[in-house]
Amino acid sequence: MRASSSLANAGEITSRRLYVYNSGFLTQARVKRILDLAGWSVSLGRPSGDDWIGVWGAAPSAERGLAVAEGRDTPVLRVEDAFLRSLHPGRVEREPPLGLVLDKTGLHFDASQPSDLERLLIDDPLDDSALLNSARDLMGRIQRSRLSKYSAYDPDLTVPEPGYVLVIDQVEGDASVLASVPGADMARARFAEMLYYAQTEHPAARILIRSHPETQAGKRQGHYTQDQAQGRISFVDGAYAPMDLLEGAIAVYTLSSHMGFEAILAGHKPRVFGTPFYAGWGLTEDEHQLIRRQRKLTRAQLFAGAMMRYPVWYDPYHDRLCDLERVIGTLEATQRAYLEDRNGWVGRNIRLWKRPHMQAMFGSQNPMRFRGAHPTEGAKVMAWGMAAKDGEVCVEDGFIRSQGLGAELVPPLSLVLDETGIYYDPNRPSRLESLIAQSIDLPDHALARARRIIRRILIEQVTKYATGVPSNPLDMEGKRPVLLVPGQVEDDASVIIGSPEIQTNAALLKRVRDANAEAHILYKPHPDVVAGLRPGLVADATQWADEVVTDIPMARLLAQVDAVWTMTSLTGFEALLRDVPVTTLGLPFYAGWGLTTDLCPTPTRRGKVVTLEMLVHAALIDYPRYFDPITEQACTIEVALDRLAAGGVPSSKRLRLLAKAQGVMASYAWLWRR
């Protein structure tokens, strides 16, 4: 993907002093940090020489800076939130922004004078095919993920029946409103006029008025009142995802709301009664003629300019500027955590050592509760593994877990939540099965992301535990075909319920040898078994295996074998990523989709044939929740891979001591589950 303007502009700007007269520039650490990364050194005092003055949009506090700038003939940098900001409005939850727009010319929402964004949309060719393809992909991803300027919503709300006209309200005194309509009285009149036109031009349709999130939160007043909700006019208040409302609308009316821009992305040609940045390019029906904007743009060109070239985007995990795609991933991860955790969790069957990590991962909205607590209204119960009862959510380790073993009490980078079943139980449906089946409808950009993940896993030699020591390649000269048989923990639920015919490592090895008399068989015991933490030891493995390997990392081993035979081991999935043929004797989640040779009958639910990219997107992107141990925030798989590659996953010596104690005190299992 072509680099965004965030990165390009940062390279063009040498470090300059930016004098400010608004305390927010100093007290809001994220804003100050983004400016610093973009080459602006925030300062107090009087500017001189090549210095600049920074002001926040058209806020009242901007007048002080503008007065100083005029008196000292100093250029002004206008700073505003970028168009994908956070989960909630800044005034509601005090969340820092994920990006800024830094405009040296004017205000993007004030068409009375030029701005950097307007000049970009007029002068930039915006004809690079890679840029526009990326723009289309990212537009689709934003729609699929229900992202918006403020991306928190309530998925349990019933979306209104389609076929309505959507009229978008804005808060009184909003700078973009006053830039279009001078004076509060005229603004109210213009909003009333907009509502009148919506009724007149659609005489038979329902009219839904959408209030601004800050109005719904009681922070600021809107322009419409409940008195106007009569007849076929009603308010559609509530934490709806804007994309859900836009998809059901037959027409959209706005003065200058950012939701009008989102309406364009959703395929509408909104009626615009103000002069926002997205008006005048042939994508809106405009009440005002904008003389400077004679160019006709496509949706992809407008998006590329306004979202990819204009803002400065920030990566909170690595404290650096980034492109739009990384910001979208950040919002997807934090949005998912918000949606799943907003009503709170009660944890059951969660061992003591896991609880602090579970609290950090799932308790950011409402603290998790344990020790037999009863769920409050709306809260859900999660239980570890097969302990989950009907109505509870099963929680388990994800498929890219850690730099170390779970049995050694190393906290996981990923966990999966499954309200339907669990991925290793083939006797009932699971959320992962549904995601794999639905993956045949994934858009191209989602499959391209899965391919990038596969490439990273191969290059960085990632496996579930990333354990083992560097070693020289095995000598496989004249030993073909080479079959790898991964051992498993024999009391593991995936073996007990997922491999009905073969449930011991000895039986597995015998079956593989009986079917492959001439093959060179490598047996790799499970790391937990080798460490003496779990059952599954095969004392005489060499009567079936030619070699037993223990310390060679699985990624390196898979590069040297011709095929894998397994009961239900995740090694089979890791082999598929490396284009190694896999034969299953049990029913792992990746069996039955046309990618493996299955010697055990698979459920009829798995009748669809999927590609490797589809399987990877379901299993590694959509299914798990990832957690960044550095920032202690929800994150994407890309960030989790970054941490593994950098060795930036902290571990705890105290937990390692607990692991030894846990092995000694296994008979006192109740103690660890209290």
- Assembly status: single chain
Write down the overall mean pLDDT.
89
Largest sheet: 7 strands, mixed
Determine Rg (CA atoms, Å). 29 Å
Overall form: elongated
Alpha-beta classification: alpha/beta
Strand content: 15-25%
Total count of helical runs of at least 4 residues: 26
Task: Supply the key terms.
674 residues, alpha/beta, Rossmann fold, seven-stranded mixed β-sheet, six-stranded parallel β-sheet, elongated, disordered N terminus, disordered C terminus
Provide structural commentary.
The protein is of the alpha/beta class. The protein folds into four domains: 1-145 and 295-320, no CATH class; 153-276, Glycogen Phosphorylase B (Rossmann fold, 3-Layer(aba) Sandwich), CATH 3.40.50.2000; 321-436 and 649-672, no CATH class; 469-623, Rossmann fold (3-Layer(aba) Sandwich), CATH 3.40.50. The protein has 26 helices and 25 strands. It has a seven-stranded mixed β-sheet with strand order 2-1-3-4-5-12-13. The protein is elongated.
